[in-house]
Amino acid sequence: MSLMSFFKPMTVTESIFKNIPTLETPRLYLRRIMESDYRDMYEYSQNSEVTKYLTWYEHDNPEYTRCYLKELQKAYKRGEFFDWGLEYKPHSKFIGTAGFTLIDEDNNSAEIGYVLNPQYQGLGLMTEAITEILDFGFSTLCFERIYARHIKGNDASAEVMKRCGMSYEGELRNSLIVKGEYKTVMIYSILKEEYDKSK
Fold this sequence. Notes:
Strand content: 25-35%
Helix content: 25-40%
Order of helices and strands: HEEHHHEEEHEHEEH
Number of helices: 7
Mean pLDDT: 94
Low-confidence stretches: 1-6
Largest sheet: 8 strands, mixed
Structural class: alpha+beta
Radius of gyration: 17 Å
Distance between the termini: 49 Å
């Protein structure tokens, strides 16, 4: 057995995200999340209303957030983290994250996830970010299908998916246990052909 057999080769996607490229929209920079963003991230991640429909609990203190972001740098280095930080240009402020929460190389598909500081909701910023990420996913990573899921009741998240051209596929009843409770999950998706036609 050769030494190389002990190591899993890095995929194209992993090699790209090891040095995550900066993307730009009219109002946002989509860039690497840095440890120095911890204060801005804590600002919204300590809010129970933000985490209400998410799988993770609110952060207890800024130091927890800082340690999380420190560990995140290692995941970036390994090419194992596919999220961008959202920097709002007018305020030079980190206001949330968006990216691929799951990449299925075998089936050429990916799942998108996102979270936004409530102070910046209702401005169309997440739609702006996801539209750019969809373009990157289809044009650069050449995915065939990109999908998103939300816990039933999170209507604001569903609206983002619809505004980005995703179609409702259905629901998986009580398919996810979140914070000790069964949750129904709603699924939306868009195919490369559909995205290309909408451009």
